[in-house]
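Why should sequence recovery work at all? Because a backbone constrains its sequence more than one might expect. Tight turns favour small or flexible residues, buried strands favour hydrophobic ones, and helices have their own preferences. The token representation captures these environments compactly. In the example below, the structure is given first.
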């Protein structure tokens, strides 16, 4: 009896894999692979396509949740690097004059640095006083109830895109050097200033070396100010492929609902400006979802045929995401012999699962290689997307849903 049950499960799993249609995910991805910055004409066109594709997936009730968003956060962070660089230089120069002033500037810089980091991953949408930087956009989602409704899984993948002067890999390097380098210099000047005040310690050679270091770090940080946002990227890898995958999952589960797991398929807007769609959604529903039985699976940077990336922690200080979901994805990838790597993203890169994790929910971020160096550029096109890459993500997501459904069946 046991062998028969295992055989039936194996047959059912193989059948479900065949029913998952990577061709459909690829088709939707290709339809959306055009510039669609929030507030642009591409933005309006993308909304029409998403609505149509959810209808094609068999859903009559499609939620369109409109909200106001802004480019305030990104502009604020860009300006903060100018402020940090300027005060870094003033701190180094003031050390030659009086250690009390350098100590004060070092402490102010530490506060400014933490402020910049907190704003970049905020749980609030800050609107600009200048209305031209504010936009109306929307989230799209559909819901699928199970028989028992013991738990809830929310798939999310943002639909907007953007281009920038620098690729994310360059931006990450700038952030890490500026944040870590600056913070080390701030602490160094705090210590040296206190020593100079208390025991009159003064080492001219060291002062000159630190001044040179401050100039270099300040200049590197200021470079980020010129990382301007535009609308020149087709955004296939970031993040049309995730939308195509989510719509295919929605289509598949419409015909194959689970026994215990309610499913929500969410495509937020304004991720590229301020994680706005995810912030709006979680603030609206956080009191309606049970944190013990609600799981978020964020798809961002998927569709590459190479290594699958599971971003399990992020930020400074380090914040971990869902241990349960991360474990299930890693175990599934190992059983399938898929190449997967557990990733920590310290700073310089953001995604919609971050405000959700900050609210205390179980969430994970699934991505893939090799496209991060092309993200936010004109080269983020369908050349980065492979059907096998989409299929592998579909299979992993299906495996995790099946495993959760089995667990809640006990």
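From this structural description, the recovered sequence reads:
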């Amino acid at each position: 009896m046991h062998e028969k049950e295992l055989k039936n499960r194996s047959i059912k799993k193989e059948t479900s894999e065949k029913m998952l249609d990577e061709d459909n995910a690829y088709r939707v991805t290709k339809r959306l692979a055009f510039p669609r910055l929030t507030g642009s004409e591409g933005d309006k066109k993308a909304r029409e396509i998403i609505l149509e594709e959810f209808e094609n997936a068999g859903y009559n009730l499609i939620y369109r949740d409109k909200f106001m968003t802004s480019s305030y956060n990104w502009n604020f962070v860009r300006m903060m690097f100018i402020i940090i660089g300027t005060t870094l230089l003033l701190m180094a120069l003031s050390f030659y004059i009086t250690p009390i002033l350098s100590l004060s500037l070092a402490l102010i810089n530490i506060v400014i640095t933490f402020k910049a980091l907190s704003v970049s991953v905020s749980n609030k949408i800050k609107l600009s006083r200048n209305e031209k930087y504010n936009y109306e956009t929307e989230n799209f989602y559909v819901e699928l109830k199970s028989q028992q409704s013991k738990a809830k899984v929310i798939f999310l993948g943002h639909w907007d895109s953007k281009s920038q002067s620098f690729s994310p890999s360059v931006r990450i390097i700038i952030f890490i050097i500026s944040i870590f380098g600056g913070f080390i210099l701030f602490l160094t000047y705090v210590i040296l200033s206190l020593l100079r005040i208390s025991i009159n310690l003064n080492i001219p050679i060291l002062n000159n070396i630190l001044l040179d270091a401050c100039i270099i770090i300040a200049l590197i940080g200021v470079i980020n100010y010129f990382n301007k946002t535009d609308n020149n990227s087709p955004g296939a890898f970031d993040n049309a492929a995730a939308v195509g995958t989510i719509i295919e999952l929605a289509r598949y589960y419409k015909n194959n609902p689970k026994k215990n797991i309610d499913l929500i398929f969410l495509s937020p807007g304004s991720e590229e400006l301020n994680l706005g769609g995810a912030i709006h959604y979680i603030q609206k529903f956080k009191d309606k979802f049970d944190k013990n039985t609600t799981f978020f699976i964020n798809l961002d940077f998927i569709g590459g045929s190479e290594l699958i990336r599971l971003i399990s922690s992020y930020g400074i200080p380090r914040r971990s995401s869902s241990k349960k979901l991360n474990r299930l994805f890693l175990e599934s990838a190992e059983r399938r012999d898929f190449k997967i790597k557990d990733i920590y993203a310290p700073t310089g890169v953001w995604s919609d699962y971050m405000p959700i994790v900050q609210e205390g929910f179980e969430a994970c971020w699934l991505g893939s290689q090799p496209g991060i160096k092309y993200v936010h550029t004109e080269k983020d096109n369908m050349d980065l997307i492979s059907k096998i890459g989409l299929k592998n993500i579909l299979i992993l997501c299906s495996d995790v849903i099946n495993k959760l459904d089995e667990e809640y069946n006990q």
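A few observations help interpret the result. Residues 2-70+128-165+229-407 form a domain with the Aminopeptidase fold (CATH 3.40.630.10).
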